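Bug #77: duplicate submission created two jobs. Keeping one. Sequence:
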Amino acid sequence: MSDARPRDGAPSVRLADEADRAAWDALVAARPDADPLQAWAWGEVNARHGERPLRLVLDSDEGIVGLAQLLLRATTGGRTVGYVPHGPIWRRDRPDDLTGLLAGIRGAGRRERVIVVKFDPRADATDDRSQTSSLAAGLVAAGLRRARFDLQAPTTRIVDLTGGSEAIWARWESDARTRVRRAAKEGVSTVLDRVGDPAMVTSLATLHAGTAERADFRPRPASFLADTAAAFAPLGGWLAVEARLSGQAIAAMGFLRVGDRAAYLWGGSSRDPAVERTRAQYAVLAAAMEALAEDGCTTLDLWGVVEADEEAAHPEAAGYSRFKRKFGGRPLRHPGTFDLVVDPLWYWLRDARERFRGR
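Kept job's structure:
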């Protein structure tokens, strides 16, 4: 794979290095279909937790016009599995860009003994279902196949943070506004952290882990959240919000930001029944929206929301989805997870194992 820029104007793929970091993050910040999981810092964080980043860029005369951050994880037989979280990023009106990126990824994957590279590109926040379907069809036409399982939530809501506090509040359901006021009457206060304060990060991790245990999902460990805060805070990309009652942390949420877009990634609350009536989690999300708007964010991705008519098919997501839907937002459906097969034999063996486990 050449590291030279193309001379004839045709885009070409090369490995990125540290010198590309600023341009890489500038593209992620500028693209409406990009989010923090393709930020350079996200690869650095995951490198400390067992997934080595391999970064490729698509160069043209205009500079970097596409990119893919692969996270490589060792698996059986000396092989690896690649994942491009919420990517790749390419000019959606130029299918040849995607074709070029996939060719580069396939070549890099062979050198890394990769079995399969998994993709789950994001829909643009302005996309409707027909555009998302067209995006999925384009991925298949480029040689990808639909994965057996999605790695990320296929549906979410994008909340508008423009217009000031009154406009933001007006877009919520009345029940959300009532519960935010209830929290204040109960004596709940909120604290913001934009610098990755260790005590705040620890508190978020503790509440997140407790909620994960009750809801039966795998939490991010405290060390991961601490590394994420340390990587994103210097870039203005970290926000943690904590609700306190009588000085005790009872709910917290963590957010990441790229450009003018933020995402709600982690949250948790106390299991104490006496705390539930305070509606502290409503106070946290309300405070976060106002803080993010003050910081220049125009939208907030609630990061996984099942709509009411789909709750029966996703009962595990019903509770937190009802909470998030109270804060409004525009429903958005992503195309899902797709596989780029690099080693067909090993892929077949892996797929057979997944089918067996899925019975």
